[in-house]
# Entry
Amino acid sequence: MTSAKYKRVVLKLSGEALAGDQGFGINPAVIQSIAKQVKEIAEMQVEVAVVVGAGNIWRGKAGSEMGMDRANADYMGMLATVMNSLALQDSLENLGIQTRVQSSIEMRQVAEPYIRRKAIRHLEKGRVVIFAAGTGNPYFSTDTTAALRAAEIEADVILMAKNNVDGVYTADPSIDKTATKYESLSYLDVLKEGLGVMDSTASSLCMDNDISLIVFSIMEEGNIKRAVLGENIGTIVRGK
Ligand code: UDP
# Structure
């Protein structure tokens, strides 16, 4: 069997990645394709933790722009990530993959509370751990959650799966046709150039803790496996 380059990964799925072309909600075909791809790497003995966003349902910033209290709007965003996490859990378990959802906001009827040591134990036993409810704090993002959890569980890399782009570009490729894709770059470049890879809180957390990040497209089936094998897909943002 081909061996994986990374043994423990954090897969960051934006909410939009679950929505597919419809842009809102959860697209069953898309979530099944993602679950299949996660299964592929879990079967390669790669330990997989997943952080799911909620842009397909609700974003705190949008709520606050409509006049809502920002913290309240952010809590709604965190709750929306729980819905996405349960949907992903369901798809994975339909494929026979053992999973646990751990929530940063306690809701014992639907998910375990986030306990770092327990999460690591699940991973060691080959279970896919889905981290729900972001960091549990308003004013943060699920990108920051991915960075934080990756540091906590000592993941080898963050796999940032995108549905609308296949890497990091010099400018937004959907607007600027002359934009070119980076093969690799540093977090300092990301921060200095203001590249929209992830928010600056997440970038600096990755930079300070030497966490590498691979940005790639999830729309091509098999890409998660390619990323884990170390194939040159997308863009790598190097921690060191
Ligand atoms: N959120 C938060 N704290 C966190 C993580 C998320 O308040 O630690 C809220 C925030 O309102 C955010 C929403 O949850 O807009 C959804 O997360 P995000 O925007 O990161 O989702 P994505 O863009 O990945 O779909």
